Amino acid sequence: MQSEYGVMDLFDDLPPAPDDAYTLIAPGAVLLRGLGREGDAALLRAVQTVIAQAPLRHMQTPGGYTMSVAMTSCGALGWVSDPQGYRYSARDPVSNQPWPAMPDCLLALAQRAAAQAGYANFQPEACLINQYLPGAKLSLHQDKDEQDLSAPIVSLSLGLPAVFLFGTPSRKDRPQRWRLVHGDVVVWGGPSRLAYHGVQPLEEGAHALLGRQRLNLTFRRVRV
Ligand code: MD6
Ligand code: FE
Fold first, then answer.
1. Is 136 in the pocket of ligand 1 (CB under 6 A)?
2. How confident is the chain (224 residues) per 10-residue block, as mean pLDDT?
3. pTM value?
4. Residue of 218, 219, 222 to mutate, ligand 1, most atoms within 8 A of C-beta
5. Domain count, the chain
6. In CATH, what number is assigned to the domain containing residue 99?
7. Which long-range contacts (CB under 8 A, 24 or more apart) does 38-45 make?
8. How many other CB atoms are found less than 10 A from the CB of residue 134?
9. Ligand 1 pocket member 220 (CB < 6 A)
């Protein structure tokens, strides 16, 4: 087949890279459609291993609310919210044990996603695991409890679809809405590192692998 670029003829037997696999959703923020789908069974087993050691729980916010999203963590640090505030902790406050180690397949996916989005050498210390059941939501917020704001946030969605809101570092700007499905990964850093984002209330549904839930994993570098 004749191609516009002669050298590309060498690759004629390879399927073209889908243009929609990489979507720039804001400066420094990239949606990688389906990056986590091929290895989904192994990723899910890894998540279940973590949850067996550090069960999902509904944390209290400093403002006195109970979060509708159930959370746990793995890695050297985990994210904790209670009436005293938000912070990272080396121990799970429920068990007073260190958080489970970050499984290799999760770390590898986060690093591949970061690299594909243009962030080389991503070394996450925390992987926050969030379980959304129908109705659960996450209000617009910034991820700003990390000291190292030079590293991106990598977010993997599994299970039921959700509407992800993604704006700018200014709360005044109206966020854009993105439908995230099983296997989608969003990476945000650089000029979007402190962008406001959130998740609309999860719709009812049943996912073939995960059933009536959405899991979201966010990978973060915390310490400089
Ligand atoms: C999402 N999650 O569920 C995006 N941030 O698609 C988040 O932005 C998030 O789930 C902080 C803590 C938990 C989260
Ligand atoms: Fe967030």
1. no
2. 41 58 96 97 98 98 95 98 95 98 98 98 98 97 96 98 98 98 98 98 98 98 96
3. 0.91
4. 218
5. 1
6. 2.60.120.590
7. 38/183, 39/105, 39/109, 40/158, 40/182, 40/183, 40/209, 41/209, 42/105, 43/105, 43/106, 43/109, 43/156, 43/158, 44/158, 44/209, 44/210, 44/215
8. 13
9. no
